[in-house]
Automatic annotation (TrEMBL):
<feature type="transmembrane region" description="Helical">
    <location>
        <begin position="177"/>
        <end position="197"/>
    </location>
</feature>
<keyword id="KW-0813">Transport</keyword>
<feature type="transmembrane region" description="Helical">
    <location>
        <begin position="379"/>
        <end position="399"/>
    </location>
</feature>
<comment type="similarity">
    <text>Belongs to the major facilitator superfamily.</text>
</comment>
<dbReference type="GO" id="GO:0022857">
    <property type="term" value="F:transmembrane transporter activity"/>
</dbReference>
<dbReference type="GO" id="GO:0005886">
    <property type="term" value="C:plasma membrane"/>
</dbReference>
<dbReference type="InterPro" id="IPR020846">
    <property type="entry name" value="MFS_dom"/>
</dbReference>
<protein>
    <submittedName>
        <fullName>MFS transporter</fullName>
    </submittedName>
</protein>
<feature type="transmembrane region" description="Helical">
    <location>
        <begin position="293"/>
        <end position="310"/>
    </location>
</feature>
<feature type="transmembrane region" description="Helical">
    <location>
        <begin position="316"/>
        <end position="334"/>
    </location>
</feature>
<keyword id="KW-0472">Membrane</keyword>
<feature type="transmembrane region" description="Helical">
    <location>
        <begin position="254"/>
        <end position="273"/>
    </location>
</feature>
<keyword id="KW-1133">Transmembrane helix</keyword>
<feature type="domain" description="Major facilitator superfamily (MFS) profile">
    <location>
        <begin position="23"/>
        <end position="403"/>
    </location>
</feature>
<keyword id="KW-1003">Cell membrane</keyword>
<feature type="transmembrane region" description="Helical">
    <location>
        <begin position="61"/>
        <end position="80"/>
    </location>
</feature>
<feature type="transmembrane region" description="Helical">
    <location>
        <begin position="227"/>
        <end position="248"/>
    </location>
</feature>
């Protein structure tokens, strides 16, 4: 049961207002604190593999256990935030994550390392689980789509910053000092988030916390075919995306390329294409419809993926840029659409999207390594292309084609 406030509903900050700018700046800092820490080890996996004497798929568990912990934690964080508030809960989550992140470099063995990464991921689950719910509550609905695109663009910059920082530091020292450097950067970003985030005005705390109440907030999104289709996009497309970035470094550090860690880290500059595309798709969706732009983004993603099978390094990098632009375009549409479809249980609907998103990162990101180790890059590309095709088929069959989906219509 939701507590009813006496005052008129908060209309949300409009584009160009101080509150709008502060929310986007705060969420950008949260994106840096979250995604810099979560994925900074991705470019260091070959170094970790050699240093700890583990295989490529075992090294990729450094990413998979963190995203699995995040996936498992997003729903519990959403229920906490329903009673405690979005900003306070996100602040707690990012503080805990930074604490675990600072312990990671001191891990004495691979097993403890995996445990700390799991706990770090679980703590980080409080950010993406709540960011879209917070944004949709505080931003005027007319501008929520553009704000969602700006947030996703910020997350891409957050992920990029961690990877670009970790690679050169690892070349100068080792991967442990690189991880510590990224965690300290995340701590600074977390402090900036708490300072910038305005006091919530669109949030209504939920009274009652029994199991029945929790189930009542979960069932509507789980019964919605359009939302289930969006959750499938999250699982399949994110799994494919993480797989490419997990294992391309192994390919480029091997003959004939023999790239050092710093050079491998530079491939993450392709994230800048995602920064651009995640903001551009909002205007395209307003003109052509969300489903059309989502399907076009998946097509772009697959096209870039196929190009990475080329032998020439510049062509591989071009394919990676196209692939990345397509993924972030699709993710921006799908994640923003999830929030706009829900009238009640918004935090839970967004959390289910994030659960699917990071479950795909964990499951597909690890299992794709088995294909890469056994059959090579072309086989990995083929498998990921099939996953993207399934995502596109589900989107075409289950998502509405109109330009605007009013809040709550997914549950009808």
């Amino acid at each position: 049961m939701v507590t009813v406030r006496d005052e008129a509903p908060f209309p949300g900050y409009g584009r160009g207002t101080n509150g709008y700018r502060r929310i986007l700046a705060a969420l950008a800092c949260a994106g840096v604190a979250t995604f810099a820490q979560l994925y900074s080890l991705q470019g260091l996996l070959p170094l970790i593999s050699r240093d700890l004497g583990v295989s490529a798929s075992q090294a990729s568990l450094m990413i998979s256990v963190a995203t699995l912990g995040l996936a498992a934690a997003v729903l519990p964080w959403s229920f906490v935030a329903d009673r405690w508030g979005r900003v306070r809960t996100m602040g707690l989550a990012v503080a805990l994550a930074t604490t675990f992140g600072l312990l990671v470099p001191a891990a004495p063995n691979f097993e403890i390392l995996l445990l700390l990464r799991t706990l770090e991921g679980a703590a980080l689950g409080g950010i993406p689980a709540l960011a879209m719910a917070y944004l949709n509550e505080e931003i005027n609905p007319l501008h929520a789509g553009a704000a969602a695109g700006a947030y996703v663009a910020g997350t891409s910059l957050g992920g990029l910053s961690g990877r670009l920082l970790a690679g050169p530091v690892a070349d100068l020292s080792d991967w442990r000092l690189a991880t510590l450097t990224v965690s300290l950067t995340g701590a600074a970003a977390a402090a900036a988030f708490l300072w910038l985030a305005p006091r919530p005005q669109g949030f209504s705390p939920v009274s009652g916390g029994g199991f029945t109440d929790m189930l009542a907030r979960l069932l509507p999104p789980l019964r919605s075919k359009p939302l289930l289709a969006l959750y499938a996009q999250a699982f399949l497309l994110m799994g494919s995306f993480v797989s490419v970035y997990n294992y391309l470094g192994f390919r480029l550090e091997a003959p004939p390329y023999l790239l050092p860690a710093t050079a491998v880290a530079l491939i993450f500059l392709a994230y800048l294409a995602g920064t651009v595309s995640s903001r551009a798709v909002a205007d395209l969706a307003a003109r052509f419809g969300r489903r059309t732009v989502l399907l076009a983004s998946i097509t772009l993603m697959v096209s870039g993926l196929l190009v990475t099978m080329a032998a020439a390094l510049p062509v591989i990098l071009l394919g990676l840029v196209v692939f990345t632009a397509g993924f972030f375009g699709a993710h921006s549409i799908a994640s923003g659409w999830t929030g706009s479809m829900t009238a009640t249980g918004r935090a839970q609907a967004s959390s289910l999207y994030n659960l699917s998103y990071y479950a795909g990162s964990s499951v597909v990101g690890w299992s794709a390594g088995l294909i890469f180790q056994s059959l090579g890059w072309p086989a990995l590309v083929g498998a990921l292309t099939v996953l993207a095709a399934i995502a596109a088929a589900l989107a075409a069959a289950m998502l509405p084609s109109g330009r605007v989906q009013p809040p709550g219509s997914a549950f009808r």
